[in-house]
Write a structure and sequence with these properties.
23% strand, alpha/beta, two-stranded antiparallel sheet, 18 strands, single chain, globular, 10-stranded mixed sheet, disordered C terminus, 33% helix
């Protein structure tokens, strides 16, 4: 069969490699046990190695309705995402919900808590009616504590907590990874890796960082830049565990950190509504490497227990998918 005829046939009837599970673009490497895209896959299979189906871990449906509506095929699991936007857009609630939806799926999660003590971070779940005690006890949730060691008197802080906060702190004690020098980006990264190792997180779950602004106030913008580059390589790219980091625009057009560090940026904004003194919350995907997304703003609202949900008319709607490479293709919003 000629190369052209083989290429035409492969496009019409693509074969799947029995090792890596990706389409075979040309004539397969075959033996008595299967068909492979390359000699490397054939040899790996002969050694008894089996790769998981990439669809099982390489894309993530977040479970957050407005966000998933814009990324209908899922977010690449090797992504570092920035939640960037105005105050009042429920950015903190979005980060909390992303963790809860992962736990609902039976996946582990790590919260890097820079702006709040661990008990306050956990309380955000309870404010939504989401009970995380079972996840803490079953080793599916870790809190990387970058807050407590910034206090002048940690004992006084613990002694002054009310009964519920005391109970929650004691119940979560084994799930907290303390960072003694949160101004040192390497110590923060090491704490994050300890949490990931504790939960054996590879190809599953996600990480959230509650505030890059707060981290920057501790260590400076240059060190934050180095930190996010580090964890993008060692967590997202190496483990296929996505990281979602939050930051406020604080009246600026964008977060001052260089955008090239992030694989995806989700913008959140407030816009005046038609009625007097009404403001709508909206989100949009500005960029997302490796995935198609709908380039439009979605109006959303928030309710405890329900989380974020699409509401009201969307704006700036174009029925096309942004492919992340400067081109688009037509698509119907799901």
């Amino acid at each position: 069969m000629s190369d052209q005829l083989w290429t035409d046939r492969a496009r019409e009837y693509p074969l799947e490699c029995d090792h890596c599970h990706y389409p075979i673009p040309g004539e397969p490497e075959a033996d008595e046990d299967g068909r492979y895209c390359s000699a490397a896959c054939r040899e790996a299979a002969g050694d008894g190695a089996t790769m998981p189906d990439p669809d099982a871990y390489k894309r993530v449906m977040t479970g957050v309705e407005p966000l998933d509506s814009l990324v209908p095929d899922g977010i690449p699991a090797d992504s570092l995402l920035l939640l960037s936007g105005d105050e009042g857009t429920r950015r903190a609630e979005l980060g909390t919900e992303l963790v809860w939806r992962a736990l609902e799926r039976g996946e582990p999660a790590v919260v890097c808590s820079v702006a709040n003590p661990p008990t306050a971070t956990l309380e955000r779940f309870y404010e939504n009616g989401w009970n995380v005690l079972p996840a803490l006890e079953r080793d599916r949730l870790r809190i990387v504590d970058c807050f407590t060691h910034r206090l002048d008197d940690r004992d006084e802080f613990r002694a002054g907590r009310n009964e519920w906060a005391t109970f929650l702190g004691e119940a979560a004690a084994d799930a907290v990874v303390e960072v003694e020098a949160p101004s040192d980006r390497r110590e923060v990264a090491n704490g994050l890796h300890r949490a990931l190792d504790d939960l054996e997180m590879t190809e599953t779950g996600l990480v959230t960082i509650d505030s890059l602004d707060e981290l920057e106030s501790l260590s400076g913008s240059g060190l934050v830049h180095d930190f996010v580059k580090d964890v993008r390589a060692t967590v997202c790219m190496a483990r296929f565990v996505p990281i979602v980091a939050a930051a406020t625009t604080a009246g600026q057009a964008a977060y001052p950190e260089t955008e090239r560090v992030f694989d995806g940026i989700v913008d959140l904004r407030l816009r005046d509504g038609g009625a007097a003194e009404t403001r709508h919350k909206q989100l949009a995907v500005r960029k997302l490497t490796g995935a198609a997304f709908l380039p439009q703003w979605v109006t959303y609202d928030y309710e405890p227990a329900r989380g974020l949900f699409a509401s009201g008319p969307n704006t700036d709607t174009r029925q096309a998918r942004d492919l992340g490479n400067g081109s688009t293709q037509s698509a119907q919003r799901r």
